[in-house]
């Protein structure tokens, strides 16, 4: 007669191994995606700062030109 105990043990061991491997893979994927997200956020923040630094001089120039336009009209 075949004992079911070793078969059941092997089946459960395989299930535990597969579940553990999947969990580790999922955790690795999550860590990779989190790192990519943080990198993208850093790049966007840097780009936003560059744009802000460009806008300030442009806003000053625009105010000066508006003042000159008012003088020419007035």
Helix residue percentage: over 70%
Counted beta strands: 0
Number of helices: 1
The global form is rod-shaped
Summarize the helix and strand pattern as letters: H
Average pLDDT rating: 87
Unreliable sequence segments: none
Which percent range describes the beta-strand content?
A: under 5%
Structural class: mainly alpha
Radius of gyration using CA atoms only: 32 Å
Question: Main sheet?
Answer: none
State the end-to-end distance: 110 Å
Chain-wise SSE layout:
Blueprint: H1 4-73
Labels describing this entry:
rod-shaped, single chain, mainly alpha, 74 residues
Structure description:
With 74 residues, this protein is mainly α. It has a domain at 42-73. Helices cover 95% and strands 0% of the residues. It has 1 helix and no strands. It has one helix spanning 4-73.
Write a brief structural summary.
The chain has 1 helix and no strands. With 74 residues, it is mainly α. The model has no long low-confidence stretch (mean pLDDT 87).
